[in-house]
Amino acid sequence: EPEVTQTPSHQVTQMGQEVILRCVPISNHLYFYWYRQILGQKVEFLVSFYNNEISEKSEIFDDQFSVERPDGSNFTLKIRSTKLEDSAMYFCASSVLLGYEQYFGPGTRLTVT
Amino acid sequence: QKEVEQNSGPLSVPEGAIASLNCTYSDRGSQSFFWYRQYSGKSPELIMFIYSNGDKEDGRFTAQLNKASQYVSLLIRDSQPSDSATYLCAVRIKGSARQLTFGSGTQLTVLP
Fold first, then answer.
1. What is the pLDDT of residue A47?
2. Which of residues 57-86 of B touch A (CB under 8 A)?
3. Residue range B71-106, pLDDT digits in tens
4. Which residues on chain B are in Cβ contact (under 8 Å) with A55?
5. C-alpha angle with apex B2: B64 to A64, nearest 5 degrees?
6. What are the residues whose beta carbons fall under 8 Å from the beta carbon of A40, sequence distance 6 or more?
7. Which of A21, A43, A108 to mutate to test the interface with B (most CBs of B within 10 A)?
């Protein structure tokens, strides 16, 4: 069964450093998303992406964040200058069409020290 | 602010029993409703979705939606210890078709 994949599974970085989290959505899906979950808290929406453009973003997704689809399979989330409060699990998700079910990848645990 | 509320639990049921998980939402215009299962340290796994009022069954799982009462529930029949996890309710609100708003989850423990 097709699934969303994410790399790395765990990333440790120092405050102020840039990180790139990578995702490969399900191959026939057209909509891509990033969510995060701080330990013990709710899953929170960050951004959605369609047709090489951001289609919606939350207040969390400020200028420090960016997303890109650099090729036909990868979808990336970049954090330019990490803060301690960026430490969280970051989940990539995809859906075949707008409004359809979203399937989540295994996540990247980001630890900022 | 659009909210999704769940009883955080923990909810404990004996093996073989029916587990009932509940979720309420504040935005009357919400359109789509999802139940995800999340094991500790893992990602949300989609187990059910429901778009229309009424019941939807899939194997041991039944989702129930009542839009008038702004209430969605998940029933797990013949609960197994492997069902022990946190169950997340997620809602797609009207006017925001791209994002899911999640509840804080209900922790379910199925006792052998």
1. 96
2. none
3. 999 999 999 999 999 999 999 987 776 789 999 999
4. 98
5. 125
6. none
7. A43
For residue B46, list chain A residues with Cβ-Cβ distance below 8 A.
101-104
Residue tagged 């790399």 (tokens): A7
**Beta bridge pairs of residue B92:** B32
Type of residue at A59: E
DSSP symbols for B82-109: GG-EEEEEEEE-TT-TT-PEE---EEEE
Residues of chain B contacting A104 with CB distance shorter than 8 Å: 36, 43-46
Q: pLDDT value at position A1? A: 78
CB contact under 8 A, B34 and A101: yes
pLDDT in tens, A36-84: 999 999 999 999 999 999 999 999 999 999 999 988 889 999 999 999 9
Q: Locate A92 and state its tokens.
A: 């990539």
A110: burial class by Cβ within 10 Å (0-12, 13-18, 19+)?
A: buried
Asked if the C-beta of B105 comes within 8 angstroms of chain A's C-beta atoms, the answer is: yes
Residue A60's pLDDT is 95
Chain B residues touching residue A2 (CB < 8 angstroms): none
Is the peptide bond preceding residue A70 cis, with omega within 30 degrees of 0? no
DSSP state of B18: P
Q: Shortest Cα distance from A66 to chain B (angstroms)?
A: 17
